[in-house]
Write a structure and sequence with these properties.
Shape: globular
Structural class: alpha+beta
Strand order of the largest sheet: 1-2
Strand content: 15-25%
Largest sheet: 2 strands, antiparallel
Length: 106
């Protein structure tokens, strides 16, 4: 199986390790996303089920920011970790630039 990884993706910058002859990638330690009173809480319905890209587009105007929502809500097994009725925190867009500057990606 192959996957196309966009140029903006964090997956382009994982750490590569070989341990006892086993090769694996380790993702970086991400700093915490700041909690804000301006964050939005949404409830997943059929429209958004498994579609963080649609949520990112609706709230940030950019489908490439789906990973922000996944990271903040600890969604590691997409889309199987989402269900109808699930509550998700959508960080205020201003906090994304703060996050990226702390992560050294600005």
């Amino acid at each position: 199986m192959t996957a196309l990884i966009p140029n903006k993706s964090w997956l382009r910058f994982p750490d590569y390790y070989i341990f006892d002859g086993i090769e694996f990638f380790d993702t970086p330690d991400f700093p915490e996303f700041p909690l804000s009173d301006n964050d939005t809480i949404i409830t997943i319905d059929q429209t958004y089920l498994g579609r963080l890209d649609l949520i990112a587009y609706d709230y940030y105007g950019d489908v490439n920011l789906w990973w922000v929502i996944a990271l903040v809500n600890d969604l590691m097994l997409l889309p199987t970790s989402m269900y109808v009725g699930m509550k998700l925190r959508i960080p205020v867009s201003d906090s994304i630039s703060i996050y990226l500057s702390k992560a050294g990606k600005k």
